[in-house]
Amino acid sequence: MTDKACKNCRFISNGPVCPNCKSTNLSDDWSGLIVIMDAASSEVAKRMGITAPGRYAVRVR
Length: 61
Ligand SMILES: [Zn+2]
Fold this sequence. Notes:
- The structure is a single chain.
- By secondary structure, this protein is mostly beta strands.
- Helices cover 10% and strands 34% of the residues.
- The protein is built from one helix and five strands; from the N terminus they run ββββαβ.
- The protein has one helix at 43-48; strands at 4-6, 12-13, 26-27, 30-36, 54-60.
- It is globular, with a radius of gyration of 11 Å.
- 23% of the residues are buried.
- The site of zinc ion (ZN) has 8 residues, from loops.
């Protein structure tokens, strides 16, 4: 339960650096989980501005 969400791109990892955008601005206060398998063909990914496959938080505080 050490998963953290990136405040910059919402990518979920176990830190301390976001593997997606290299930001260290991570939060453990997040909710909702979206798994993106194929960002190019996902409407949800497009709407959220996601370009790489992975797990993402819906909301990050
Ligand atoms: Zn990030």
